Q: What sequence folds into this?
């Protein structure tokens, strides 16, 4: 596939990962007439139930990867917690979008911040941490409270550690697992927004309208569109995402989470997180836009034209986390709401089980 | 499942038929967290590619039917050209919606017209035909031109025969295959509309807004919403569909095609065809409504609440028939349009390959 030859319907899209994002991408691909082949390690993989084919194997199973690469026309991934090596090997055999560079940077919190800084973008004050001594020194320089996070994804979930006083640093270092990390000051932001940006291989971009996001206990709770931020803030946010996408030579849908610090047109935007994939804060697009983020991503990686992200409705997306999903009979009856369930067989606290889009006529 | 216990997410919906309607139903079911199991004879079955499981077997394979019935929680069908016997056997083992009665009547053009007439509904002047002599007699009584159609579906496609002069009847009888038939006068209608009606097992109904349909060479070409007919005509059309659905004790989405004869509020409505399933003239609902006809059907057969069929946009659906689909690169680039392709591997003249919904903001 060259950049000016779109992948014809009937081609097979390979998706790494079998979770809900893979499932929603697989459906979008099927609606365009593509076949889908999921590659995922054993486990609860709801994406497999809506795909034409599936390979269940370890991320580093070379034979399985080669067979998979041979069976598909293009590869994408539904999340960034995949060994870089997996994507690197596949990329030697078949086109992979987004590229391995985007994956590598999104997996490395330090590289993410370094890149943002090198592009002249704002981030929360931070310091790289490789030892307890580093952390003790940083806790003096940075404004507390601060958050210590392991540098790379893929370490088993030690989570994030809040540091409120300089004397907490030794314990925080132990809790995070004494692994390379990043510490950053907690920012007093007014609100959080995100940009859901599609970029084609020809460099064209399309940005959906900006959602405003609320998190609860570290998990996205709601995304509301339009966001209650000035138009100019939305425009600056999109420009930031475009800058990042261009720097990564990105193909596909990219999500950039941003903190809005301060009020009005002069508010500052700080890059919080870059996700090289469709994003939970874009799930509202399925019911408020003609073309969803999932279709937009499939179009981008297939070399199809990227449509204007026309939005016909206002919307609030609410995640159904863990036991929330048990309210499905009431949610299914709610007027003006569309329920999405992911077909996961096991409910666990904190697990994303579905979402609800509450839609109203567009006001402007 | 009783009428007041909705089928929980994670249950398995069995679908008879593997074509595009099965595919679109399977996707809608997956979006609600259901698993889907397709039953279809060997062939090009695009629905299988988006389903969790599939049984490929003949319609009358008793063992396969029993295994299928055992694997699913409820059964529906994507088209009416299935042996009544298949549905009758399944209904002894598992709930089937719509019921076998609706299927039987929709398969029998004479029974369809008899039922409509017995409900006091208008139909084109018609006569049952069991012999060449019947046809000769009818050609004298009915206004010509008239159309001769085999009475039952499932006879191999002798199609429909136009009778323009009384002396054409012997040849017409031969062409239709000398099988039980119905002849009906061709109606000089102003336009064609259809009702896409959902009915739950509790008797509640929901009607989508009325589309106006254009056919070309006997195949649906476009459906436009809103239809250019007076409001009162739409209301009467919905009342007709509700009457039919109640008479059939119907559960699921039912489509009723109607001729509008004459002008204005006093136009007459004639029942043309009843389809016990989601319908091509309802494909616009996917992109102009919060909940599509496909989700509405799945909800009805699963005993879920039926939402108001809120329409947020105006729309024209255009079918992509045969080689039309080769225009996909241009169609995929059209602003304000959403392309749907069915993943069929073989293009044939007259074959439905996809559709395009051209969407504009709702005007009223």
A:
């Amino acid at each position: 596939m060259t950049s000016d030859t779109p992948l014809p319907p009937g081609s097979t899209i390979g998706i790494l990962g079998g979770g809900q994002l893979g499932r929603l991408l697989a459906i979008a691909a099927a609606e365009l007439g593509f076949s889908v082949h999921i590659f995922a390690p054993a486990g609860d993989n709801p994406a497999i139930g809506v795909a034409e084919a599936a390979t269940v194997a370890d991320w580093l199973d070379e034979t399985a990867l080669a067979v998979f690469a041979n069976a598909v026309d293009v590869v994408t991934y539904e999340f960034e917690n995949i060994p870089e090596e997996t994507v690197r090997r596949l990329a030697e055999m078949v086109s992979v979008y987004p590229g391995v560079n985007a994956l590598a940077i999104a997996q490395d919190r330090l590289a993410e911040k370094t890149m943002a800084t090198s592009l002249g973008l704002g981030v929360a004050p931070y310091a790289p941490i490789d030892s307890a001594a580093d952390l003790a020194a940083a806790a003096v320089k940075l404004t507390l409270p601060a958050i210590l996070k392991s540098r790379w994804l893929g370490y088993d979930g030690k989570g994030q550690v809040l540091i409120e006083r300089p004397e907490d640093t030794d314990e925080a270092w132990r809790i995070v697992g004494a692994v390379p990390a990043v510490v950053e000051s907690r920012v007093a932001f007014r609100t959080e927004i995100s940009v859901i940006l599609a970029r084609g291989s020809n460099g064209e971009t399309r940005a959906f309208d900006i959602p405003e996001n609320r998190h609860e206990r570290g998990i996205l709770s709601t995304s509301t569109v339009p966001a209650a931020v000035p138009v100019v803030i939305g425009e600056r946010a999109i420009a930031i995402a475009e800058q990042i996408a261009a720097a990564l030579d990105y193909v596909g849908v990219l999500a950039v989470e941003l903190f809005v610090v301060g009020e009005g047109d002069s508010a500052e935007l700080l890059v919080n997180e870059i996700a090289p994939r469709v994003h939970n804060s874009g799930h509202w697009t399925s019911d408020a836009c003609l073309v969803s983020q999932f279709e937009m991503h499939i179009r981008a990686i297939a070399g199809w034209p990227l449509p204007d992200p026309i939005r016909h409705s206002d919307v609030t997306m609410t995640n159904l986390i863990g036991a929330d999903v048990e309210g499905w009979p009431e949610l299914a009856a709610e007027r003006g709401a569309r329920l999405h369930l992911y077909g996961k067989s096991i409910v666990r606290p904190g697990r994303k089980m579905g979402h609800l889009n509450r839609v109203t006529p567009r006001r402007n």
Summary: The mean pLDDT of chain B is 95.
